[in-house]
Recover the amino acids of this structure.
């Protein structure tokens, strides 16, 4: 496994933590999902698979509302 390329701001030493798979830096230095790079990759993948399109979001919102109503109804019974 590769080691993190990031340098500590305080000590100036290299991080040396193991990198996150496919990244140049470790978990702490932005290798984790949630970093810009990973987020962009995820967004691209999401678009390719049809998630997060306008229609899809509307659909899911409707579904969520429906589920809420259904739950409310269950409580009333
Ligand atoms: Zn690091």
């Amino acid at each position: 496994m590769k080691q993190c390329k990031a340098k500590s701001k305080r000590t100036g030493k290299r991080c040396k933590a193991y990198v996150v798979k496919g990244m140049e830096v470790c978990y702490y230095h932005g290798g984790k999902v949630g970093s810009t790079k990973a987020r962009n990759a995820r967004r691209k993948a999401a678009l390719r698979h049809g998630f997060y399109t306008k229609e899809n979001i509307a659909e899911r919102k409707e579904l969520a509302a429906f589920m809420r109503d259904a739950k409310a109804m269950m409580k009333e019974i």
In short: The chain is about 45% helix and 0% strand. Residues 54-76 form the longest helix (23 residues).
